[in-house]
Amino acid sequence: MNIQFYLTKLLRGLMTLLLAVTFVFVVLRASGDPAEMMLSDEASPQAIEAFRERWGLDRSYLAQYGTYLAAVVRGDFGDSFRDGRPALQVVVERIPATLQLGITALLITLIIGIPAGILAALHRGKLVDHAAMSFTIFGQSVPNFFLGIVLILVFSMTLRWLPSSGTGTLWHLIMPALTLATATAATVARFTRSSMLDVLHQPYMRTARAKGIPHDRRVLRHALPNAAIPVITVVGMRIGGLIGGAVTIETVFAWPGVGMLLVNAVNQRDLAVVQAVVLLIAFTMVTVNLIVDFTYGWLDPRVEVHNTRKATA
């Protein structure tokens, strides 16, 4: 085990979180005055000033930033401007809905993407391959918000098979999960096909065939394990994309998750909630990427050595 490899990855993850928090802190305060957004147009200058003083907005950006970082380290993400509750509590209430949507989309991604890529590689140049590649082009070309609107028009407005918004039943989950999973499944299918084709042409696969090992066994015992490493990397990277993409999908389908909360909080200039959501998304993506890096290094120790040499070069 190369300790330097893991420490380097952890340090980069912490730096990413710091940059994400800093970016959203600066952008939110540069985009407008929260006091004017939260209060009515008839609010007096005294009321606006009192609001700023109450929430610490009358201090310099540097002082606000230092106070916020110190509070985050203690686990205090501030209070919501809208209802005065802790921002973390407001965000945590929405996590189950987002997890339900994200996990379902991930399962659809794995069920569709990996088998489609494997079949395309095993039947290269044939109808199955062309169909799988057409799916990848479609999935990666069509914006997910546009696909969601089309699904609503077809299955809700025209056929009246599925509800167009909200949550509560399995039927509410189908269209948002399919919309969120389509682009990710297309990416996974393309990378799975590419990785399988590379493995199928390796010398050890020709050796296994020459020894008379059955086709199914060659694929399951030799090809798939060796093709799994780049696929695991892609799947891990796309998990972060599922979390980020949920912001758009939850808005289109009125899904009451973290993404919809973020959109509402931005419109209301609820700084504490926005910062808590962004930090949660950044933490999720960094954590997933770290797990992928560590898994990659465990499956292929050469990755640890290569990355360590690059870091010390």
Automatic annotation (TrEMBL):
The chain crosses the membrane at residues 101-122, 142-163, 169-189, 227-253, 273-292. It is a multi-pass membrane protein. Signal peptide: none annotated. GO terms for molecular function: dipeptide transmembrane transporter activity. SUPFAM superfamilies: MetI-like. Residues 95-292 form the ABC transmembrane type-1 domain. InterPro entries: BPD_transp_1_N (IPR045621), MetI-like (IPR000515), MetI-like_sf (IPR035906). One of its GO terms (cellular component) is plasma membrane. It comes from the Bacteria. It is found in: Cell membrane. Keywords: Cell membrane, Membrane, Transmembrane, Transmembrane helix, Transport. It holds the Pfam family BPD_transp_1. Belongs to the binding-protein-dependent transport system permease family. This is ABC transporter permease. It comes from Martelella endophytica.
